[in-house]
Task: structure prediction
Amino acid sequence: MSEKWIAGVDLGGTATKLAFINMEGVILHKWEIPTDHTNEGHNITKNISDAINERLAELDHPKTKIVGIGMGAPGPVDYETGVILNVVNLGWKDNFPLKASLEELTLLPAAVENDANCAALGEMWTGAGEGAKNIVCVTLGTGVGGGVISGGSIVQGANGAAGEIGHITVMPFGGAPCNCGKTGCLETIASATGIVRLATEELSKEGTTGGLSELFAENGKVTAKEVFDMARNGDVIAQKVVNEVSFHLGLTLANIANTLNPQKIVLGGGVSKAGNFLLESVKENFSKFAFSAVRDSTELALATLGNDAGVIGAAWLIKNKIKL
Ligand code: ZN
Result:
C-alpha cells in the first residue's frame, strides 16, 4: 500500500500555510495561499479545500491519499466541537463551526486547535521537544502565544483559553495597554512589538548615545532585530532593553515551570531568532526564580521547526485523533 499523507493547515491573518505531511511528521510538499476574509470568512475553508484538491491533482494523487486534515487557527478553539469561539480579523462571527465546515467541504475527517497550541504540538512531535510529553511552548512574535502540553495532550482549560502565556500580567501597575484589553501583559514586553516599544521609550529620552540611538535618529524607528544586534555589540540602551525582556520572560517561565515542571520550555517565533544570546539571558533569570528541583529538571531550548511548527502540529492533531 502506498504511503498515506495528512494535510496540515496553519491559518494566519494574511496567508494560510498548507502542507502534505507523512505519518512520521515529515513535510513532503508545502505552499501558501492568501487568506480571504470576505463573505464572513466562508471563503477561508472553501479555498483550503480547493487548494488541497488542486495540489493533489498536480501531483497526480487521488483524494484517498489524504487520511485527514488538521488545522491551527488564531483564537480559542473548543477542541471537542471544533468551534472557533471568537476571532478578530478573519470575518467569522463568534462560534464559527470550523471543523464542521472543513469536513463538509473536504469530505475528510478534521481536527482544529488554536495555532499556538499547534506550534507546541509540532515542536513536541519532531522539533525541540524531541518527543517529551510535558512541554511548554512560547511563541515570541508580533504577540506572545503559548501552548502547554501535559502527558502528550494540549491543556485546553474550561474554555479553550489555557496556555495564554502572553497575557500573564507582569506589570500590575503602570503597564502598557495590551491587545487583549488588559494592561501590563507579558506580550507588551516580550513580543517584537513590546521590544520596539521599550526601545522607543528609552531612545526618546534626552541625550541618548550609541549605535541604536544613531539608528533611531536616522530612521525614526528601530526593529526588535536591531535591538538584539546592537545589544550583542555592547550598546548600552539595547542591552538595557534586552535585560528587561529577559528578566520578565525568565521570571514568568520560572513561575510556569514551578507550577508544571515540564521537561522542556521551548522558545519560538520571530523574536527567538535572536538565538542563544536571548536564550542564555532568559536562562540566567529563569535559574534565579525556579524552584531548585525544577531548575535541575526543566530545560529551556530554542524551537527548531520555525514557521513549519504549526502545520506539523496540526497534522499531529488529526493523526492522534484518528489513531493512525
Ligand atoms: Zn494581554
